[in-house]
Amino acid sequence: MAHAAVTVSLEALKNEQLEDATAKYLTGWSLGKETLKNGQVDTLKGSYYANCAFYVNPELECAESTAEFSLENFPEYLSPNVWPSEGVLPGFRPTFEELCRLIIDTAVLVARACDQYAEQKIEGYTKGYLEHVVRTSTTTKARLLHYYPSPPVASDGTQGVVPDDDWCATHVDHGCLTGLTSAMFVDETATRALIKDHISTDTHLPALPELPSSPDPQAGLYIQSRNGETVQVKIPRDCIAFQTGEALEKITKGKFRAVPHFVKGVAPKVGDGDIARNTLAVFTQPSLDELVDTESGINFGEFARGVVEKNTSK
After folding, report:
1. Domain range spanning residue 24?
2. Would 311 be classed as within a structural domain?
3. What CATH number is associated with residue 113?
4. What SS3 string covers 68-97?
């Protein structure tokens, strides 16, 4: 995930044209394009999205078109990936794809366990359905995230009211299973110096000094339980975590619930106010024409289109 810090720091990336406004920034790089609550635009989280259709077919750069969904009417899922050039981020694409494959491979096993429960508890549940979705989907997306250092304290020593979810507002994912790596905290004062010395002829990115843990123990990922309890989640560095999303809630008729979650930033006074967080999320989702609500007949493409419209800044 050192790539996340480098992606947002290299001056050369300004000329890389990694944004895709037509895809509503669900492919490539974006910052300040997402609205998560009260109409506020999210400016503390840099995002790089890539389609993971390569898991099913290495030749695919996006989801496969259907009779209902095409590049013209659903570019959010049918726009091809926008990769940084090898000269700017050497090794980025193969490293990114390798980690995504590992996470999806693991998600298949998690899905199999979920299916065993659903088959026992839900009348008419299709045997092995979630595993089928995770294993065969061409709509799965990965999101490399860089959470910028929290805004500095004002000159009078105050910062105003800082919400708990200042780094990422409370929301639920709209897919099935979201695979999450542990968070990588870095001091950007140190990483900037290394990145500045990076040259285009390097075959690998510089190894960025990672902090052993968050310097602010209160910072990081929080989830909310069904009874409203808020719990901090600290994923060990050698582990992958999974959380459930809206599509799975619909598929399982509420037996699995989408998990509300948010990310709390590092306090501005910690680490000279220059602590950033990097992580990778892989959203395993049904293919566009897969049903997510058998009662209403809504497929994932229809469902996702509504979510994207709600979450994208105008």
Report:
1. 2-151+162-288
2. no
3. 2.60.120.330
4. CCCCCCCHHHHCCCCCCCCCCCCCHHHHHH
Residue 156 maps to a domain: no
Q: CA 22: distance to chain centroid?
A: 19
**DSSP reduced 3-state for 246:** helix
CA dist., res. 231 & res. 149, Å (int)? 23
The top-scoring range by mean pLDDT among 13-27, 156-170, 174-188 is 174-188
Q: How remote is the C-alpha of 266 from its chain's centroid?
A: 19
Under DSSP, is residue 232 helix (H, G, I), strand (E, B) or coil?
Answer: strand
pTM of the model: 0.88
**CA 62/CA 79 separation, integer angstroms:** 6
Tens digits of residue pLDDT in 202-231: 666 667 788 888 888 888 899 998 888 999
pLDDT tens readout for residues 231-275: 999 999 889 999 999 999 999 999 999 999 998 888 776 656 688
Number of domains in the chain: 1
Q: 54 φ, ψ to 5°?
A: -60, -20
